[in-house]
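Before the break, one more example. Copy the sequence into your notebook; we will annotate it together after we see the structure.
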Amino acid sequence: MRNSSDYDAIIVGAGPTGLAAALAVAQSDLRVALIAAPHNPAATGADTRTAALFKNSLTLLSNIGAWTACEPASAPLNAIRLIDDTGALLRAPEVVFQASEIGHDLFGYNVPQQALVAALRQAAAGFGHGLTVIESAGAQDIAVDADRASLTLAEGQTLTTQLIIGADGRRSICRHAAGIATASHTYNQAALACTFKHAVPHHGISTEFHRRAGPMTTVPMPGRASSLIWVEHPDVAHRLASISAADFLHTLEDNLQGLLGKLSDLGPRVVFPLSMMSSESMGRNRIALVGEAAHVAPPIGAQGLNLSFRDIATLADILHTAKLEKQDLGSDDLLRRYDNARHGDVNSRARAVDLLNYSLTSQLIPVQLLRGAGVHALKALSPLRRRIMAAGLAPAGDPPPLMREADTRDATFASRRTTL
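Here is what the structure looks like once it is written out:
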């Protein structure tokens, strides 16, 4: 008889990535525990960050029962506009990517982090006996042997499992326990994030100004409101965060070149340094890594949480198959399959984000000319533009089952059952 503290999988970390991972893995009738810090509604309510989620990520949220609750607070993304504000020798033309060009009604939605976390928590609370949420001050020790992994909480309780899923961020204790090394570097840049209201409608268009210090991006929110990610030199970003709201809005109006008209209702401003981190492996020693425990990229191109959700959907699919085949859920072979499945997507997007950032900040004339010529090509060549749009939304090939519509997903799962 299995002990009540014994699980098929334990997820450490209860941000959006950890919550979504717990719900996704529990879909396969696995006994799952989610280790979460005690819920603090006041702290959650102070979070004004948003995430631009592409359609596959929204399908995942729908399939794990969280999208309906957070959709009303979110805004559709119909188009993406690029504006060259670098002052380069070859000025690139304005380019607008329309979702309709690749057969989509929209690219995705801009989702407030507060609404997303609340929806995921609600789905976890209502999931049933297969998913247990354990509030704890944190994991203090992780031990791994040939057959099981054990996790000791700050409160002294020890849990055992076949697999630990680390969703505990860039300072992951799970990654440390697995012995997985990382490569990282920091940029001489910082991002300022906030929300604001404006007089001119955004029409569902996200606008990215390409500037010498880095991109400045406005992303639609419901009504006449937008979220902002403004990349600058760290000193400039901190100065912008410290000036009065009126002075900041006036400065932002100037930098937006009147695009959204008169600005008002500035939300809290948060500044965070830009960095890049990649893990040498996505899993080892009965520990799988998802989200920022495995990879960190600057907030450019809306890759962060979309990458994390693809980690989750891929891992959940591999675990679903392993359960049907009665395999060890924490085996070296399973973790290698997960690493192989995610390695290319994660690394290629990290390189693309790094290259785009470099092309904006480089003082080299040839680099500036190449970037300008590339944008001219995107403007002129619709097949190239469509290819870039499709690649930006998701890697080539079929998405994991949890990122497909319900009827397709269920057919995939059913076919597997009949062939085992």
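Residues 413-420 have pLDDT under 50 and may be disordered. The first strand starts at residue 6 and ends at 12. Try to locate both features in your own notes.
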